[in-house]
Write a structure and sequence with these properties.
By secondary structure, the protein is mainly α. It is built from four helices and two strands, in the order E-E-H-H-H-H. It has one domain. It starts with 10 loop residues before the first strand and ends in a 6-residue tail after the last helix.
């Protein structure tokens, strides 16, 4: 089965695009991202709003056990 991230319209923890970016960061880390790009320009826009680099976000995703844990770690810095 091929990788497909969640739809970009899904809002997670009040943050649009976050669910999709989480999926792509996980897929890049485990080598299953296929033709998707992380960080793409929309990912980069969200990363700026979160005051994070792609590397910092990837580390948060890697050390977190759930989407909820990721939201808790990034939400305080969100400027959307």
């Amino acid at each position: 089965m091929s990788f497909e991230p969640r739809d970009g319209s899904i809002v997670l923890g009040g943050i649009p695009w976050l669910a999709r970016m989480i999926d792509k960061a996980r897929a890049k880390a485990d080598g299953t991202i296929e033709d998707y790009i992380y960080p793409c320009p929309k990912d980069q826009d969200l990363l700026k709003k979160l005051s994070l680099t792609a590397e910092e976000f990837s580390a948060i995703v890697a050390e977190s056990n759930s989407d909820e844990e990721i939201v808790e770690k990034v939400k305080a810095n969100y400027r959307g």
